[in-house]
Amino acid sequence: MARTRGLTLLLPTLARLEILTLRPGSAGLVGEVTxxxxxxxxxxxxxxxxxxxxxxxxxxxxxxxxxxxxxASHQRGWPALSADPTRLRRVDPTVEIDLL
Length: 100
Hints:
By secondary structure, the protein is α/β, with parallel strands linked by helices. It is built from six helices and four strands. The protein has helices at residues 2-5, 13-22, 27-35, 46-59, 64-76, 85-91; strands at 9-12, 39-42, 80-82, 97-99. The chain has a two-stranded parallel sheet with strand order 1-2. Helix 6 links the parallel strand 3 and strand 4. Helix 4 (46-59) packs across helix 5. It is globular.
């Protein structure tokens, strides 16, 4: 999808870890996706960590990955890409989401 639309996808390292933990059989597909030039793997910076912790405290959610995705989406002005929009809307009902 990213290639055909000319989009860059931002993939938090925690998302990769979550996928591999929950679906270990998908390692080949995850490797293919993360090697694609349109996919940027992002590490959590200290300032991102602080912002995420503040949002978690404000919303009462315990979903660090969803909060990170919402934070990154707002920070960059990009829509979030998700197959589970409800998970992201629990963190922020206003976040723009493109369905996967």
